[in-house]
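Morning!

This is the sequence you dropped in the shared folder:
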Amino acid sequence: MSDKPVSRSAPTPVGVVSAGAPAAAAGARPSVMQLVFREKGALYAAYMPVLSDGGLFVPTTRDYKLGEDIYLLLSLPDDPQRYPVAGKVAWITPANASGGRTQGVGVRFPADEKTRALKLRIEEILGTVISSAKPTQTI
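The structure's back. Tokens below.
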């Protein structure tokens, strides 16, 4: 299934690659999603500093379960590097959620050094915007 960006400020899911077997099946590999943030506003709307190791909201129409593995390949604004993240689904925003919220999942970053460096990089890009009261797509 192809995911579509929900708004101009939403990150762009470039593609989802599934392992073929349903993710709930024993031994199934996680899905892989490329997520491209072209502007700081989209990154702000998706970033989840409330999670101790950080995380991101991923707009998707695919069904996920809490705790399910998901592998992200992130591209950040004005940064040529792609960042791999082996995360887990921390929350789910279903279709037709109240308040017109975008359908998708919150992906919790793992507690490792590479991902801590990514969290610091995201917070460096966001700068003082991170403490804004502007609403986001996250919890």
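Headline: The chain is about 15% helix and 30% strand.

More detail when I'm at my desk.
O.
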